[in-house]
Structures are given as structure tokens and as C-alpha cells.
Amino acid sequence: MRFGFDIDDTLINLREHAFHIYNKKLNQNISLEIFNELKTVEIHEAFSLTSEQGGQMWNSLLEEIYFTNCPAFEGAIEFINELQKEGHEIFYITSRPKNYCPRTRQWVVEQGFPVVDANFYCGMQDDEKIHIIKELKLDYYFDDKPAVLNTLTDIPTKIYVKDQSYNQHVNIPRVKSWVDFKLQ
Predict the structure, then answer these.
(1) Residue range 36-75, pLDDT digits in tens
(2) For residue 181, is it within any domain?
(3) Are residues 164 and 80 in the same domain?
(4) What class of enzyme is it (predicted)?
């Protein structure tokens, strides 16, 4: 079988990691309860930042957000390593900016995820992921963003959404925990 995975907020807890960085940089102590209630992918509104201010902050912190100690979701590394041991092909499809692709691939490897270089796709826009997913003829694909998931409704790939506060309206089978997840 061929399995495709988004990385940020599907396999690793990037938004919460960034949230902690924002708290530190802005010298604030906004609670995780506020974070867990956000209905948007963007986290700036929890800090009373405008979209423009939030975008500027995010972009100014990308190195720290992407390449420091962002944790994988519990069980994600083990789940993917088990799939690989069983002989399945693993593909990563991330819309991180192109200039971060080589370091992202290396960082993912360092975290313990199995990566075959030819199966690592990076640098496209969210709405371009569908072309790669179709071309790869994936059996399964996992993502968190409604904007991506909504483009995948007319393909034979079995789609799963990684459960997040901002995607509760998406009616697709969910991964609430990688530890407890079982393919349907």
C-alpha cells in the first residue's frame, strides 16, 4: 500500500510548538485552553495580533518554529515505522516553503521518521497537493487542513483528517490519537 502524510499538525505538533514560542517572544502566558479553542489554523488571534502582524511574526520565527524541538504527536513515529516494516511505501507531502525543503527532510529523519528521498515532496501550495496525491495513486492520505482535504473528495484515495480544533466541521474519518489509530 501507498501512504501519504502531511507533516505539520498531522505528524508533528507544530501549531502548539509555535504557540509556546509566541508566548515566550511576546512575554505572555496565554493558556493552552485558549489555543485549543482556536477555529483557525493561524494562531495570532490568541495574542490579539492582526492577520498582518501574525503573518509577520510567523515568518520571522520560521527557523525556530520549524527546526527546534517541535514534538511529534505521540505514536506518530512508531505508526509510520510500523507501516514501513510491513512493507508499505511512505510519502511525505508538505507545503513548507521550498527554501526549507532540504532542512525539513533532514529534520524529519532526525526525529526518527523513515524517509526515502524520492518519496519526500515539499514546496508546493496547499491546493497543489492534490496533483501529487493523484499522481502517486496513494491508497491513504492524512492531513489536517480543511483547505487541502476539501480538494480530495473526488479521488479513490482513502482520506483521514488529523483531529484539530479548526477542522471539526470536516466530515472525514479522524485520527484523534496515533497511539490508538486503526485503519478502517
Answers:
(1) 999 999 999 999 999 999 999 999 999 999 999 999 999 9
(2) no
(3) yes
(4) hydrolase
> What integer is the mean pLDDT of 107-126?
96
Catalytic site residue from 6, 9, 143, 144: 6
Share of the chain above pLDDT 70, in %: 100
Known catalytic residue: 6?
A: yes
What pLDDT shows up at residue 184?
76
Structural domain count, the chain: 2
Grid cell 514534538 is found at 71
Q: Which of 8, 9, 143, 144 is flagged as catalytic?
A: 8
- Indicate whether 103 and 118 sit together in one domain: yes
Residue with cell 489509530: 181
In this prediction, residue 183 carries a pLDDT of 87
* Beta sheet of 140-143, edge-to-edge order: 120-122, 89-94, 2-5, 140-143, 158-162, 174-175
Taken in order 89, 93, 98, 102, the sign of the CA dihedral is negative
Joined together, the cell numbers standing for residue 2 give 501507498
